[in-house]
From TrEMBL:
Chain residues that bind Mg(2+): E9, D105
Originating species: Vallitalea pronyensis
Protein's GO biological process: DNA recombination; DNA repair; DNA topological change
Domain Toprim: start-end pairs: 3-136
Descriptive protein name: DNA topoisomerase 3
């Protein structure tokens, strides 16, 4: 009997699809049923070959070998997951399998995951595509009833291949060129570098900022304070002479009411979440990193099935989702919002084109709850926080506008304009959801046009202008999504808007993580600071790589390829020409790199000086010479909490000298004494868990950085050189 092979992206998704399709027989890497066999990738199983796969000389990094521009790119099996690849290939080639259903993530990278496996395995069988936006049983069942022809996604695949090849040509060549030129492990990329440039430019603006004193005039009358409005909205006064002249002119004068305007205003609910806006809110409210939010979202999507596909750049839903909205409201059981959901179900939902618009739905619609009942008690605290953010926004979107009455009173004192604004809520609307009620003006005084106003006091307040705020992950994500202010030309601003900024919703979290992992930026109490290494990199990289326009132009072309409007081959030819230009620019650059973290300690292997490097898990000493490769752990961050201040402690020393140290309050305790104390308190730390944890920490310290070129760069130290 013939069967259909279903290829999912992850084991967890594969198991859920297998359950829905009745695949109850378990085998190595697959689930087997009467009609379907479900298997899975482990993320990518296939990747583009490293440079050394093309020529022996590329095993060594030499400037003379650049640029590397292989004519035909090779696909290779990733060693760590090769076992699963061969399992998938064996089933794809099985005579029983007559058709393959691609059920990887419905997007560009998901298409690449599956198609590369099929291409590498050299399988020539009919392909269908499962394209769904949630992992509920109903969504999976409906998806399999409406499978698409795989050919409909050929252009999306070509777009994904073009993106991958372009990043290989530009990224690997530029990384090797910078590293060879300066003998420092450096990397650059079309999204990474413009993002770093934003942070460096902001820091420079803060450094150069000179605060200026300003003054604001106030006029008191019968318990009302009027604010000076100035000319053309310029209320701040930066000139003391002008300030004093105005005060002298206005003292002991009466005011006259020039206008009283009362308007009713409506504020529509915020739009539904796409991934970036959700990451921004999660960072602002809970301090979650973009990466953390995405990870929590994946759990809510794949494991709990209570939210729709997370990697979406759309804030809209399509018309066919509207009939399911009340069922989605019914699934909301969280105590904080259950009452609001029930109330909405009993009323007519407020649905506008700010939420429902078929033309503005991209590959996936906005992030909203599914019809699956949410058991929030099973969730972790952080998972619940993200889920409730999504629920709250969903309820807001379906609610009426916030309506208020605004009264603006303007008075003239010797022809100088002052004003006061009153606000009175008429209908809380969407702002009634949760704890966000608007405050009304505490004091409302009635004024009539042309009436005289007695002024009891004229005075000024003073302040200092403030520098631009340092980036948080939230504000950085916002500027990555909308970087128009970094480009002067209007046509180019339009281009950036059309492609949705730099990076994609699926990659921005990884880009920020790469900046941490390459020691280009640091996070201090939620604020992002560029390191000296990061500052120098943007000076060493060719100018075009710093601009958000490069990635915008790429994304526009990649979108055209996915729509059949452009050819992959033409794009790649352009990329090769551009790569040659970049390498030549690096070769001819006279700028040098300077270390800021060099120590007086010498490397025991080569005699060079060691650098002190900080990472998320602690500190290390690494050799200044990248070809030496020596490194030694100085301390390691642990999950052990200080008994005095409850902060996480670091561990220093080796063997029986291992000691916990709290960097916050200075508490110290040897590991042996720590374990003995815990045992006495009947809270002994399990030795096996300690060993596992220490092995994990060692593995984290030893592994190469998680970036697009990790395999190629694995033999080198990714350290703060």
């Amino acid at each position: 009997m013939s069967k259909i092979l279903v290829l999912a992206e992850k084991p967890s998704v594969g198991r859920e699809i297998g359950r829905v399709l009745g695949c109850k027989q378990k085998a190595d890497g697959v689930l087997i049923g009467p009609k379907y066999v479900v298997t899975w990738a482990l993320g990518h199983l296939i990747t583009l070959a490293n440079p050394e796969n093309y020529h022996e000389r590329y095993k060594h990094w030499n400037m003379g070998d650049l640029p590397m521009l292989p004519e035909k790119m090779k696909l290779v099996v990733i060693k760590k997951t090769s076992k699963q690849y061969h399992t998938v290939k064996r089933w794809m080639m099985d005579k029983e399998i007559k058709e393959i259903v691609i059920a990887t993530d419905a997007g560009r990278e998901g298409e690449l995951v599956a198609r590369w496996i099929i291409e590498k395995a050299n399988v020539r069988k009919p392909i269908k595509r499962l394209w769904i936006s949630s992992q509920t049983d109903k969504a999976i069942q409906d998806g399999f009833k409406h499978l698409k022809d795989g050919k409909a996604y050929d252009n999306l695949y070509h777009s994904a291949v073009a993106r991958s090849k372009a990043d290989w040509y530009v990224g690997l060549n530029l990384t090797r060129a910078l590293t060879c030129k300066h003998n420092v492990q450096l990397s650059a990329g079309r999204v990474q570098t413009p993002t770093l440039q934003m942070i460096v430019s902001r820091e420079e603006a803060i450094r150069q900022f000179v605060p200026a004193k300003y003054y604001e005039l106030k006029a008191d009358s019968n318990h009302v304070t009027f604010n000076y409005l100035g000319k053309g909205g310029h209320a701040r006064i930066f000139d003391e002479v002008k300030r004093d002249k105005l005060l002298a002119l206005l003292r002991h004068q009466e005011g006259v009411v020039k206008s009283v305007e009362t308007k009713t205003k409506k504020v529509p609910a915020p739009q539904a979440y796409d991934l970036t806006t959700l990451q921004i809110d999660a960072n602002n409210k809970y301090g979650f990193s973009a990466k953390r939010t995405l990870k929590l979202m994946q759990q809510l999507y794949e494991h709990y099935k209570v939210v729709t596909y997370p990697r979406t750049d759309s804030k809209y839903i399509s018309q066919d989702i509207v009939p399911t909205l009340k069922e989605r409201l019914e699934s909301i059981t969280t105590k904080s919002y259950k009452g609001y959901a029930r109330s909405l179900m009993q009323s007519s939902l407020h649905i506008t084109n700010r939420f429902v618009d078929d033309k503005k739905v991209t590959d996936h619609h906005a992030i909203i709850p599914t019809e699956e009942v949410a058991f929030v008690n099973d969730m972790s605290g952080d998972e619940r926080k993200i889920y409730e953010l999504i629920v709250k926004r969903f309820l807001e979107v379906l609610s009426k506008p916030y309506v208020y009455e605004e009264t603006k009173v303007k008075i003239a004192i010797k022809n100088e304009c002052f004003g006061v604004t009153y606000k009175r809520t008429l209908d809380q609307g969407w702002k009634s959801i949760g704890d966000q009620k608007e405050e009304q003006s505490k004091q409302v005084v009635a004024f009539k046009s042309h009436e005289k106003v007695k002024i009891s006091n004229i005075y000024y307040t003073e302040g200092l202008t403030t520098p631009p705020s340092r980036y948080t992950e939230a504000t950085l994500l916002a500027d990555m999504e909308n970087p128009k202010k970094f480009v002067d030309e209007k046509a180019m601003q339009t281009t950036l808007s059309q492609v949705g900024g730099i990076g994609t919703v699926a990659t921005r979290a990884d880009i920020i993580e790469k900046l941490y992992n390459t020691y280009y930026i640091e996070n201090k109490e939620g604020k992002l600071f560029p390191t000296l290494k990061g500052k120098q990199v943007v000076e060493l990289v060719p100018p075009e790589m710093k601009s958000p326009l490069l990635t915008a132009k790429w994304e526009m072309t990649l979108t055209d390829i996915s729509k059949g409007k452009a050819k992959e081959s033409v794009f790649i030819d352009q990329i090769k020409t551009y790569t040659k230009k970049l390498v030549e620019q690096v070769k001819s650059d006279a700028t040098t790199f300077k270390h800021d973290n060099i120590t007086g300690e010498k490397c025991p292997d080569c005699g060079g000086y060691l650098l002190r490097v900080k990472n998320k898990n602690g500190e290390m000493l690494v050799c200044k010479d990248r070809e030496c490769g020596y490194k030694r752990k100085v301390n390691q961050l642990t999950n052990a909490r200080c008994p005095e201040c409850h902060k996480k402690m670091i561990m220093v020393g080796e063997g029986d000298k291992k000691t916990f140290i709290c960097q916050n309050c200075g508490f110290k305790e040897k590991l042996q004494a720590w374990n003995k104390r815990k045992q006495t308190a009947n809270q002994k730390m399990d030795k096996r868990q300690v060993n596992q944890y220490m092995k994990k920490m060692k593995k984290e310290a030893d592994k190469p950085l998680n970036n697009a070129f990790a395999d190629s760069l694995s033999k080198f130290n990714f350290n703060k050189d």
